[in-house]
Amino acid sequence: MADLETFRAETRAWLEANCPPECRGAAPGEAEMVWGGRNAVFPTPAHKVWLDRMAERGWTAPEWPREYGGGGLNREEAKVLASEMRRIKARPPLYSFGVWMLGPALLAFGTEKQKQRFLPPIVRGEIRWCQGYSEPGAGSDLASIQTRAVDQGDHWIVNGQKIWTSYADKADWIFCLVRTDPEAPKHLGISFVLFDMATPGVTTRPITLISGKSPFCETFFDDVRVEKENLVGVLNRGWDVAKALLAHERTMIGAMGDTGVGRPLGQVAADHLGLDEAGRLDEPLLRARIADYDIDAAAFRLAMERAGDQMKAKQAHPAIASMLKYYGSELNKRRHELAMAAGGSDALEWEGDRSNDGQAARDWLRTKANSIEGGTSEVQLNIIAKHLLQLPGA
């Protein structure tokens, strides 16, 4: 415990000295988020400084081994780092599917050469990844994918289409499910491969959502060459990798419900609705709804920490990620519903100065996809009913 408190004091001092003021507080919008990659865009020079400083310590992936660029922290130290970042409202230095999804899969299934090749650049934010899973005919039934990889000796030729490929138009590389044995049962004959999005034959087309914006794309593969050294795991057993990665993806999406950075909803509401004579939000029903949300959000943060401890100790039920994904998605939707209620008529504005060019309304509409992406809420509830609650007939 004494060592942990020493680590806390040192971490607190380092964060205070190294986290720029521009990188504290909630990001006002996606334009303030740093995704890295070979075409990285930084809102200010301070954001680049913050990423470089954190990456140098491995704290963009604090629990990854040091030999792969990570921080080498144990679970308790990582929790201290997270709590100290929340204390000063430090933004994540890097938003990365490489850190959240691919990295853990490579640590579990990748070769040593693959780990050395890809993990350190992911930590430094040098590669931006996208995920090639869903297809027009394979959404919730993901194992029905038809994107085909034909053996050409030392490489494959890939043809097919993916959909809802988040940020495919901005990504450098893709981790992708392809069918390498069309004669095998659908959960077999699938392989997990990596390739550069600049490879000839790869094209993307953004899909506009109701919010007027979208991270999602259609992605097309026309005779794309994929080297066999980029196969992750065992040939035709990519479903094993896919399932492990899905658990990390669902936990990542669920973490949207853990909003430890940014202004509390009560303050947002007070700006628009004012306070009563006792200094409380001058709208009792909304005040109660916000209090309920704050309690649930605090409880969910603790549940996330407990689940993280269980996963680290390899004691977590495989379906726990579905629980976190479901509840975190619903919690995030509740937050934005309350933000709209708190903002009053200003929050309804689509363009202009009062609501930051419609950011509140656009963010609210964007959250409607939370209960679809990464596996629908209905699918998650079925998994919970069958595997966690073991309900009869589930």
Describe this structure in words.
The protein is α+β, with helices and mostly antiparallel strands and 394 residues long. It is built from eleven helices and eight strands. It has helices at 2-18, 45-56, 75-87, 97-109, 112-123, 238-254, 265-273, 284-312, 320-343, 359-366, 377-388, and strands at 129-132, 148-151, 155-162, 173-179, 190-196, 202-206, 217-227, 231-232. The chain is globular, with a radius of gyration of 22 Å.
Number of DSSP strand runs: 8
Strand content: 5-15%
Individual helix count: 11
Q: Looking across the biggest beta sheet, what order are the strands in? A: 1-4-5-8
Return residue spans where pLDDT drops below 50 for at least 5 consecutive residues: none
Largest sheet descriptor: 4 strands, mixed
The helix content is 40-55%
- Basic shape: globular
Report the span from N to C terminus. Answer: 44 Å
- Structural class call reads alpha+beta
Secondary-structure element order, as H and E?
HHHHHEEEEEEEEHHHHHH
Q: Return Rg in Å.
A: 22 Å
Mean pLDDT: 89
Pfam family, one: Acyl-CoA_dh_M
Protein name: Acyl-CoA dehydrogenase family protein
Cofactor: FAD
InterPro entries: Acyl-CoA_Oxase/DH_mid-dom, Acyl-CoA_Oxase/DH_mid-dom_sf, AcylCo_DH-like_C, AcylCo_DH/oxidase_C, AcylCoA_DH/ox_N, AcylCoA_DH/ox_N_sf, AcylCoA_DH/oxidase_NM_dom_sf, Mycobact_Acyl-CoA_DH
